[in-house]
Design a protein that fits this description.
By secondary structure, this protein is an all-alpha fold. 76% of the residues lie in helices and 0% in strands.
Length: 312
């Protein structure tokens, strides 16, 4: 497979479309989750993404050669943590407004920085530490109205638990990202994408004893659609990074807030509060700062290697 030529416009376009598709997927999950428990929603999301992923791998000629693995246990752990992240997020989606779920999920890159220090021994200096601190303040601003339910506020405890579930899901998603960083050292991207969907599908079946339901026809359509849309979104996201550096592509993840606010208003009549938008703005700014810092460090490391090659 030849290496794609850099094309920033194509990379950004694919990224934005993938972000929109993931918001649509979350919308479908939210609509369908009124009829089924989170584990069942994970099954639909994972199982019905498989045909899309398999077709993509066949077209790329990677289905046979790209699915081998030297680290099956690593895929199992990544699947277990990723499935847990999905289940927690889907549980929160059934309770909270779509835009609020997206805002809380922006904490995931902040958790990745913290876990990279604790688990991978990465060095984090003042700029990224400041960005993480700023982002966490933003997360607290988003969560505080919900958490006030535990301190005598007039917010329902169900909404408070929903916010905690989404935050826990974001932490698990960050932990899954750390495992992916380890997997990419020995595994093909095709294998990581494929085996995650397979593992998540199988693991979700273990939740059958916890109350799977026969969904309505409309809920079934939403949940199947979530699987297909999520599979297409994953492919477009992966392809976007073939045409552009992460520093160019990653910031457009935050377009999801615009999509979530618009779709949430049209589909569910949801209107974000000023405090929530203020907190989300802080978290987004922190995320962009981390991305820019990572790009700067990558460029500096590249210059260091060039210096060694030229003069060493």
């Amino acid at each position: 497979m030849s290496v794609a030529q850099p094309n920033p416009f194509r990379a950004i376009t694919l990224k934005v479309i993938s972000v929109l598709l993931f918001v649509i997927m979350a919308t479908f999950i939210k609509a369908g989750s009124q009829d089924v428990p989170p584990g069942q929603a994970v099954f639909f999301r994972s199982f019905f993404a498989l045909p899309v992923i398999i077709a993509w791998l066949v077209l790329r000629g990677q289905f046979k050669g790209g699915l081998g693995t030297s680290n099956p246990l690593g895929h199992l752990w990544r699947g277990l943590i990723g499935s847990t992240a999905m289940g927690l997020s889907f549980a929160g989606l059934a309770i909270l407004p779509l835009y609020e779920v997206k805002a809380i999920q922006y904490a995931m890159p902040l958790f990745v920085v913290i876990l990279a220090v604790l688990m991978l021994g990465e060095t984090v200096r003042k700029v990224r530490l400041a960005a993480v601190a700023m982002g966490m303040v933003g997360v607290l601003i988003i969560l505080w109205p919900r958490l006030s339910a535990f301190t005598g506020g007039d917010i329902s405890t169900e909404l408070a638990y929903g916010a905690i579930l989404v935050l826990a899901g974001s932490f698990c998603a960050a932990l899954a990202q750390i495992h992916v960083r380890r997997l990419v050292e020995t595994e093909e991207t095709a294998a990581i994408v494929f085996w995650f969907s397979v593992t998540a599908t199988v693991l979700s079946l273990a939740t059958i004893p916890f109350g799977w339901e026969m969904p309505s026809l409309s809920a079934t359509a939403y949940l199947i659609g979530a699987g297909f849309v999520g599979g297409i979104g994953q492919i477009l996201l992966t392809t976007a990074y073939r045409y552009g550096d992460a520093s160019i592509v990653a910031p457009f993840e935050y377009a999801s807030m615009l999509f979530a606010v618009a779709i949430g208003y049209v589909m569910f009549g949801e209107v974000p509060t000023p405090a929530m938008m203020a907190g989300a703005s802080l978290v987004i700014a922190a995320g962009v700062l981390i991305i820019l810092r990572e790009n700067y460090l990558r460029i500096q490391r590249g210059k260091g290697r060039q210096h060694v090659t030229k003069y060493g």
